[in-house]
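quick one: glutamic acid bound model?
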Amino acid sequence: MLDLSSKATGIAPSQTLAIDTRAKALKEEGKDVVGFGVGEPDFDTPQYIREAGKRAIDEGKTRYTPVPGTLTLRKKIAEKFLKENGLSYKPSEILVSSGAKQSIFTALAAIVNDGDEVLIPSPYWVSYPEMVRMVGGVPVFVPTRQEDDFRVTAEAVRALATERTKALILNSPSNPNGCVLPGGTLRELAQVAVEKRFYVISDEIYEKLVYDGEKHVSIASFGDEIKAQTVVINGASKAYAMTGWRIGYAAGPANVIKAMSAYQSHAASNACSISQYATEAALSGGEEELSKMVAAFDARRKLIHKLVNDAPRLSAFLPKGAFYIMVDLRGVLGKRHRGVAVESAEAFAELLLDEEFVAVVPGEAFGAPGFIRLSYATSEERIREGIRRMAAFVGKMES
Ligand code: PMP
Ligand code: GLU
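yep, here:
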């Protein structure tokens, strides 16, 4: 066998997607799996968006589009930013990609040199550190604590910023912990970024999924200086239940977007034409569908939070956004299952899937050992069943 590249062999595959594959395989074997693993809305893409996709096919809009996306979609995205985030972008400052994942990767590819440091608040979304490594950068983690609602602080970022710091990745509302950063914190973080001169990649994919009266604010909205250093990431996957359509987008300074576009032109050309037309429709309406989805997620959030905290030895922080909850396993690890001590969240997650058919992601994937992440983008009935099995499993563990 010939060698693989050292870059490729150093990359760990996405654990969230790996668990989803495993859970799906068990389902195919006929097992009754409760899936708290991968994070994707369980709702169907709203009808009006599906219709727009079908129309695009029937009208023959099935050819290459401009690399950064159709002009009409980019204009629609610019309107969205102005209306919802108070941010003014020209179409030349917007790039449409195959999913927000590709937008983030391409943004990193456009700004990170070998050895550059990228600050990542931890716990983090599974792909950030690997993406940074894939472009030759060095992830530097900024720890946050459950006791502080997982909020990253400007002081912590300042303390870890060096002359090698090229960027900070922010994700509010957060995957995996549902933290929503307050405006005051974002303003302070913006000041540090401007003072220390590093980019901010602000992943705002969950912006519409906020609860308890929380408001999403984009860090780029705190003035021209920070806007000129920020790449805002967003997309259709979460807000419009469109994960499979693969549409994400980035907005930022023209030179960064131009470099990202050049990179994408060789790596992927344009995002799917049909999906781009469907996203144009998505952004043109659907607030009603969205509020129904948000209300359902909110009810599930409260339910799962209560069920987890009622279960023996388990506890969880009440998330304020997105559709994930982190469950603290510190009262469980070290206890024995069938005589064998369960020492890590990874071991716990494996047993839970193999024996109870409940899929969760171990916190190790997010830099949060001692926790598991549950996606509650599933029905209340499945949530009850899954937590019932988990509580019974934990209840049987011996000290
Ligand atoms: N950022 C975060 C924080 C996510 O959770 C996800 C979901 N996978 C993405 C980006 C990527 O989304 P997309 O499906 O649009 O690539
Ligand atoms: N955002 C989802 C998750 O974290 C999708 C999986 C992925 O893209 O890795 O589970």
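The chain has a mean pLDDT of 96.
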